[in-house]
Automatic annotation (TrEMBL):
EC number per UniProt: 3.1.3.7
Catalytic activity, reaction form: adenosine 3',5'-bisphosphate + H2O = AMP + phosphate
Organism of derivation: Oleiagrimonas citrea
Protein's UniProt name: 3'(2'),5'-bisphosphate nucleotidase CysQ
Residues annotated for substrate binding in this entry: 71, 93-96, 217
Record's subcellular location: Cell inner membrane
Sequence positions that bind Mg(2+) 1: 71, 91, 93-94, 217
Membrane topology listed for this record: Peripheral membrane protein
A Gene Ontology term for the protein's cellular component: plasma membrane
HAMAP family attached to this UniProt entry: CysQ
Pfam family, any one: Inositol_P
Swiss-Prot/TrEMBL keywords: Cell inner membrane, Cell membrane, Hydrolase, Magnesium, Membrane, Metal-binding
Amino acid sequence: MNDSLRGDALTASVIDIARRAGDAILGVYKRDFDVEQKADDSPLTEADLASHRIIVDSLRALTPEIPVLSEESVDIAWETRRGWERYWLVDPLDGTREFVKRNGEFTVNIALIEGDRSVLGVVQTPVTGDLYYARHGHGAFRQERPDEEPQRLQTRQAAAPLTIAGSRSHGSARQRELLTRLGEHELIARGSSLKFCLVARGEADLYLRAGPTSEWDTAAAHCVLEAAGGDVRTLDGEPLRYNRKDSLLNPEFIAVGDADIDWAARLAS
Ligand SMILES: Nc1ncnc2c1ncn2[C@@H]1O[C@H](COP(=O)(O)O)[C@@H](OP(=O)(O)O)[C@H]1O
Ligand SMILES: [Mg+2]
């Protein structure tokens, strides 16, 4: 990567790519579209594929030496991936179920992973234009519309009753049981990585995920939340990390705004 593509210039280029992908998604959203079921029974639309193509082609042109792993092109052997020091990790359309339901709660997610950590993240919401971005060590920002000044994000200190973000389409009895251990709380249901963004901007205290997600579902928003002062940990209290194993599934995790509290211990009690 040459120096002009480090830091802010790189982030600006990725933001532009995410916006173009979001526009392509909107083009499909506004008309009729077919929905296929993938082998794992999750939905796939033309919008996922259009966004995937724009992002992968654009990232390859921007940084030809950095490999790209996208939800829609995951057939890269672990033997290859394990040697990557840096790669783009992409979910071209996170929240495809919400896209199909036409409730607006879906995002474009692009992350840069270095080692096993997400060091640059961009999350774009096609329907509203709301955009979140961060670089590790350089703060997290929200730009509600492209012509507005970005606002720096800061998580909040947790206080009872907690506000907890959870999946709109993937709840579980186990998740509800775990949440009762955190005491009195209000639940906000949201599709996609927007749950992390609610925590990053201090409107929710945490997002608990008891149930499967993949590494591309979390990487971009993980960077945003960390740079806003938050943290993402497994339910054993270990930091959530990337590219450490053959399987691309994440362990269950808790994404929090207030990193001074031992949330894993509270969940275990
Ligand atoms: N059984 C399962 N296995 C793996 N990932 C799953 C899953 N059920 C849901 N997910 C993930 O959860 C994401 C949706 O999360 P949420 O319910 O919070 O909106 C999906 O993203 P995609 O829409 O990108 O496929 C999918 O990756
Ligand atoms: Mg996803």
